[in-house]
Amino acid sequence: MMIKQAEKKITVSKALAPRKVITANRGRRKVIRAKRHEPKASAIGLLKKKKYISEIDKDDVNNILAAVEYVEELYKFYKLQEIGDYMDQQTEIDEHRRLALVEWLIGVQYTLKVPSEVLFLAVHIVDRYLELNLVLPKDLLLLGLSAMLIAGKYEEDYPPAAEEYVTIASGRYSREQILGIEKLILEDLGWSLTVPTTYHFLVRFIKAAGADKEMENLVFFMAELGLMQYEITRYCPSMLAASAVYAAKLNLEMTPVWNETLEFHTGYSEPEVTECAQKLLSFHSEEVDQPRIAYWNYVSRARTF
């Protein structure tokens, strides 16, 4: 297997040869981030509550796991931790290869029945790794497998074992290869996995929307469609989550589509989410005409309830 990093190829044999330590000042490729849609002042929680904004946490006051005393501050912090673009720095892969990988990972989630937070964290791990490293096309699938393994270990009490990922990849990669890349990923990410993904914002914004199960499933479907498309990475995760809520409400012909409660808790006004939401709706139209794995994942989820 070959991993191309910092304009150099580092060969990892089946025995997983030791990797050179790459410091911040030597060997590390500098990433120049492209301009993107960043959260505005309102998006980091600077709006003042008004009397017509629903208190969406009132039913969770006695739920210690909901952490209602800190939830607003937590989401302000989440928005400050979002990451940037990277594909223009990649020389061997493009957005079509990324789309194929993410679609395949959605299929892995569907097959192994892992929770949504595992999928969103896995894609986040893939994007963060690609932001720092040049990866060869033949190693992209291996990167995705190892990212799913890491995300499962982080999010689940009893995650799928590495052997299950060997099986799901039809034996294309060995257990040792998957675990070897897992270590490289964790080293490059500084073992930091407590990061905001679109999933974190979806949970909050779905609550703010007062969504029923039908709407919740459709919101996740819209978000997964956005997750596959590299052009959506120019929108920060909170914007994708807010736009998925908006797109789902439009699709279900719900009124009002946006209100003061959603604006307060998402930090975005209706005009701010419209562009991204329209893109999600266009992806939805394509998906209905030519269903792919995200669609069947959504149908399966909808039938469960």
Written account of the structure:
InterPro entries: Cyclin, Cyclin-like_dom, Cyclin-like_sf, Cyclin_A/B-like, Cyclin_C-dom, Cyclin_N, Cyclins_cyclin-box. Residues 103-187, 200-282 form the Cyclin-like domain. One of its GO terms (biological process) is cell division. This is Cyclin N-terminal domain-containing protein. By secondary structure, the protein is mainly α. Strands 1-2 form a two-stranded antiparallel ribbon. It is globular, with a radius of gyration of 20 Å. The longest helix has 20 residues, at 270-289. The protein has helices at 71-80, 95-112, 116-132, 140-155, 162-168, 175-188, 198-209, 213-228, 237-251, 260-266, 270-289, 293-304; strands at 2-5, 8-11. A hairpin with a 2-residue loop joins strand 1 (2-5) and strand 2 (8-11). The chain starts with a strand and ends with a helix. Helix 8 (213-228) runs antiparallel to helix 12 (293-304) and helix 9 crosses helix 11.
Write the layout of secondary structure elements.
Blueprint: E1 2-5, E2 8-11, H1 71-80, H2 95-112, H3 116-132, H4 140-155, H5 162-168, H6 175-188, H7 198-209, H8 213-228, H9 237-251, H10 260-266, H11 270-289, H12 293-304
Antiparallel strand pairs: 1-2
Helix pairs in contact: 2-3, 2-4, 3-4, 4-6, 7-9, 7-10, 8-9, 8-11, 8-12, 9-11
Keywords: Cell cycle, Cell division, Cyclin
Domain Cyclin-like: 103-187, 200-282
Domain Cyclin C-terminal: 196-299
